[in-house]
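User: What would this chain look like folded?
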Amino acid sequence: MMNAAARLPWELAGSKVQEWHRDRLAVVYVRQSTMAQVIEHGESTRLQYGLSGRAAELGWEPSRILVIDEDLGRPASGAEVRPGFQRLVSEVGLDHVGIVLGIEMSRLARSGREWHQLLELCALSGTLLGDMEAVYDPNAHNDRLLLGLKGTISEAELHLIRQRMLGGRIAKARRGELAIPLPAGFARRPSGEVILDPDEQVRAVIALVFSLFDRIGTVGGVLAYLADTRIQVGIRLREGPDQGELTWRRPSRAMIQNMLRNPAYAGTYAYGRSAGDPRRRRPERPYSGKKRVEPGQWLVYLPGILPSYISVEQYERNMRRMDANRSRAQGMGTVRDGPALLAGLVRCGRCGRKMTVRYQRGPGGAVQPSYVCGMAAATWAEERCQQLAGPCVDDYVSGLALQAMAPAALEVSLAAAEQEEQRRAETDRIWRQRLERADYAADRARRQYQLAEPENRLVVRQLEKDWNDALAERQRLGEDYDRHLASRPRALTPAEREQVRALAADLPAVWNAETTTDADRKQLLRHLIENVTVTVIGDSEQADVEITWAGGHRTTGRVIRPVATLAQLSYLPRLRQRAGELLATGCTAAQIADSLNAEGLRPPKRAAVFTRNSVHDLLGALGLHHARASARRPELGEHEWWLRDLAEHLGMSKVTLDAWVRRGWADGYLHPEARLIVVRADPAETERLRILHETPRGQHMRRPWQQNQEASTSSETEGSPDDDNRTRLRQQSGFPFSICHLSAYRAAISRAGYFSWSRRVVRTRIRVVLARPLRVTVVTVKVTSRAMVSGSRSACLSPVSRRRRARIPSDSCSMTSSEPSGRVSRVLSGTDFAPFLTRQARSAPVPQNRIQRCMEKKPRSARLRMPGVKLSSS
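Assistant: Here's the prediction, encoded as structure tokens.
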């Protein structure tokens, strides 16, 4: 028997393991920090898997041993999600685990939060922890203290490892020897030396990107050009089985931005351009959470170490331009498509802040820009400094810019033609390189096919397919190149050169041409002008403009802006005096407009000149319109009124009175000389029009009902006086009719070949139909507590063909419980409808033979009955 003193600590730990521990699972947790450790340090992985044998020695059955190895290649610092550790915590919390085994406690967690969380769960569930040395019980004081120290030491050890590794990287980077990831256009030799990519097409595309940004100035413009010409960027794969191989990818916005921001293209070796931010890190993306660091805070900056595509000065200029393209209060922002030509250049002369652009729709849907200084209003709820319409400032600055460019127009045009030819040559060279690459790929596929043994059909079939694919790709690329040449010739023709010279002599024509976009105008102005300062003089129409040109020269001037009211015009006293003088001399509105325009006066709002209508508005606003109009009106006869004067006398709208004259409600005529409407109205007629105006709307429709109704409370029976009323009503109205309820009428007209559009029946309002065979009048009768008819509304329904006959079920003739049929019958029994029908039936009576034919064809419409309402067949 072995001596107890000679036994290992692991063997002495069996006393902590109870039988109920063995009833649960024994979990072996396996983890390596990186995939490189998994591949290169295989012995550590085998030792961790060997802990299953240790669990068997402690008394667990092989079927009760669970190995969790989902965290191979994942660090335990707590920054990333570990699915294996989460599974372990879940099993422990569910009381499924008796012991957790690891090669060392640092394998479980190197974060204090995760480590102590696991200890608390193990203490609550009675789970044991074990490593290569011993078994620990979290509920025991000494074991809990020892486990806490192990976790703290493990976390401190992680920080020490990181510090040593970071110091080594920085020391190597300061010598320029640390291998950093290379961007597109660079390659690394086996010796570690960085060189330009040996592929000529790759270098040409990189050079074209920087050339385009230097000319266009925006990332979006560069991307649009590359997409339009279908140029791709060559990328060397950094990892995988094809590491180092060249692949071609479509350019994207992020790709172009990274190329412009990377100092390696300027020959600068930089390290520490980004830093990790734990708040931005996403668990599913291990390399996320990084933020860009300012160049002054980079850890290593060594210019001239790497081969370059551009100079350091051009790189810094590109950075300033990209920073200026951002829409901020300090920068101009990128060029956009709006019609405001000075967007980003205009500054307020009162507070010095940048003025923003606001657009609104004008007459005809045209977009009208305005420059507004509203920073104080948006930030501190103060009043706006100033605002003015954009076209007045844009036209003034554009005119000065064209004058400045006029002397050098020819030289600029020739330089532009040369730049265009150079750019086309660069694009054509890239296309020819793509064709050369496609030819090489097709020839290589052909040689591989020819070198294969014909008998080996398994290989030959695939090589033949590769050859066909290469030939098809070469043909497609050739067709794309032909289309590219058709749209963009390689060189300017002599005719195009002469056209460029001719346009150089007429810059305003080029500036105002439809082919010149607002973005082109803005880009040109930004090359010439640094900023424009605008100061509105008080609240008037005058504004001072100061232009700061590129180079520091300044030009000042004054522009006239549109204003909202006449009171804002600085020349309002002069305008009032001049308009009064012209009016006194008997000038017409058109003559006054011509005189004011000739003297340089202009109206408010956005109107450029005075017109006949604007002169009328001006005279009315100045109080001169009525005196002039009344002096020119001819004399009227007795009891005759001008329409405007009578409307003011009655206190009503002249539009309403004009409508009454046109309808014949008032007597009037058009004056032959003044061409104005004259109304004849003596005192009695004036009083009648006043009463008519004060009558509520719809009163003329309700009055005949209120004057001719007689309520009757007697029950309606066969042979009642209602039949006499019906007969008298037919005699007075001049045509036969029937009275029935709406629901019964619907069924009747559906069988008679008519179609009714009225469907609604309300609780207190029901429809009563006064029907002729070919013309129908629908009346809405309101039932009151006194059984009086208090309102009516009529509509005419026309017959339709039998093919469109409405099919209504037979039960639709019965009234619903919400319809007061008894009270309706009492109201109708004593109602005289003759006055109402006399007003509504203005059409000629229907011929008697037509009525008889209709009644003979559909006699069933007279046999319909309704509870409480009697139907007549007349």
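Residues 80 and 272 are 22 Å apart (CA to CA). If you want, I can go into more detail on any region.
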